[in-house]
Amino acid sequence: MLKYLKYVGISASIALMIALFSIGLRNAFFLSLQPPVNLDPPVNLDPPVNKAFSRKSDFVMLTNKTGASGGTGFALKGKSGKVYTVTNGHVCDGVKDDDNMLYGHDALDPTRVIRLRIIENAGFSDLCILDGMPKASGFEVSTQPPLAYSKAFVIGFPALEPLQPSEGYVLTPIHAEVPVNTAIEDCTEAKEKVVSQVVEFFGLSAKMEVCVLEIDALASTIRIFPGSSGSPVFNAAGEVIGVAFAAGTSNNAMLLRHSDVEKLMAVY
Q1: Spatial contact of 56 and 48, defined as CB atoms under 8 Å apart
Q2: Buried b (16+ CB within 10 A) or exposed e, 29-44
Q3: What Cα–Cα distance (Å) separates residue 217 from each residue in 79, 140, 165, 250?
Q4: Rounded mean pLDDT, 55-61
Q5: For residues 11 and 77, which has the higher predicted lDDT (pLDDT)?
Q6: Taking the alpha carbons of 203, 209, 211, 217 in that order, is the dihedral positive or negative?
Q7: Which of 26, 45, 98, 119 is found 20 to 30 A from 89 (Cα to Cα)?
Q8: How far apart are CA 154 and CA 233, in angstroms?
Q9: Plot region of 263 (φ>0 → left; ψ -120 to 50 → alpha; else → beta)
């Protein structure tokens, strides 16, 4: 009997571990369980970036209904001149409700909430486009990609706290694999593949298969934290040159490429 109970206990623990991992996998880059380390925001932002930071109506904190998890969204002009809201695909997947909508909290007054409808979750990159915000004027996508080792700035809601900037430098291209909220049998898109990963929770480990999206991205020295997913990346001229989507070593941001943002907005 004791042996049976022990077996049941271990099985239940592994099941719980896998369930927690499945949740954590989707939320890894935008769900915070504790306040972030202070980002030490720049004291003197370049004037164009400071102007972007002051445009609070062009930023939105995107969450689920309870506000417990989410990421950053920002207003961006499409090729047509119409303004949309852009964030990461994994943010849309992780916090959308049954109506395919997210809850948007005003950057100045988080108690003011609007619902934003998902228009498209791009299959070629970790990008998602939603309805525009009522008062947003929209940032411009830069006409040029960032140069390696050029200064850049991320503005977002780390740990779903007030809007905050962080600065650093764009580094070199990298290849990233981002877990996506897709069933193994449906993991068939052009840049999706199934990989095996060993997961550890509470001292237990298990190997499981997950669907990942292969992304060509850029490394950087810009520090971000959970909640920063979907934040715009600005050059010194205050133009959008990418989108933050994950943190690597020392919380340094991995950035979606300028070309992916251009491709997304070209049809809008």
Answers
A1: no
A2: bbbbeeebeebeebee
A3: 23, 20, 21, 17
A4: 97
A5: 77
A6: positive
A7: 45
A8: 5
A9: alpha
User: Over the stretch 156-198, which tens digit does the pLDDT of each residue have?
Assistant: 999 999 999 999 999 999 988 877 767 888 888 777 889 987 7
pLDDT digits (tens, 9 = 90+) for 219-242: 999 999 989 999 999 999 999 999
Q: What is the pLDDT of residue 123?
A: 80
Q: Please say if the pLDDT value at position 15 is more than 50.
A: no
* pLDDT at residue 17 in the model: 35
Instruction: For each of the domains in the chain, give its residue range(s) and CATH number, in order of start.
Output: 2-266 (2.40.10.120)
Are 248 and 168 spatial neighbours (Cβ–Cβ below 8 Å)? no
The secondary structure of the chain in percent helix, strand, coil, rounded to multiples of 5, reads 25, 40, 35
Task: Give the CA-trace dihedral at 90, 164, 257, 219, to 10 degrees.
Answer: -100
Yes or no: say if 232 and 93 are a contact pair by the CB < 8 Å rule: no
Contact between residue 62 and residue 116 where contact means Cβ atoms under 8 Å apart: yes
- The first and second tokens of residue 124, run together, are 């070629």
Tokens 């950035």 label which residue?
255
Contact present, 135 and 220 (Cβ < 8 Å) = no
d(CA 47, CA 238): 8
Token pair in block for residue 215: 């992304």
